[in-house]
Write a structure and sequence with these properties.
The protein is α+β, with helices and mostly antiparallel strands and 75 residues long. It has one domain: Phosphorylase Kinase, domain 1. 20% of the residues lie in helices and 28% in strands. The chain is built from 1 helix and 3 strands. It has one helix at 17-31; strands at 7-13, 41-47, 50-56. The protein has a 3-stranded antiparallel beta sheet, covered by helices on one side.
Length: 75
């Protein structure tokens, strides 16, 4: 992207349960104040019967959410 942010896209058809979760995530990200420790919401796009949420990509590993992981305890 021109501003140096790499996009991460979550897309699903409107009748997929993931679409509700993705749009909820977008609403939460869009309501956070600037500088919050969360990725920037870059946009929401709808085409035909699909919805795509575009957020800024964050570098780093995926969290390990298994019960024994220290990642699961961080807030």
């Amino acid at each position: 992207m021109v501003d140096g942010k790499r996009p991460f896209v979550k897309a699903a058809p409107d009748d997929d349960p993931l679409t509700v979760a993705n749009l909820h995530e977008a609403a939460v990200l869009g309501s956070l104040p600037p500088g919050a420790p969360a990725p920037d919401l870059l946009g929401i796009h709808r085409v035909a019967d699909w919805a795509a949420v575009v957020i800024a990509h964050l570098d780093g590993p995926h969290p390990d959410l298994s019960p024994a992981s220290g990642d699961a305890e961080q807030t």
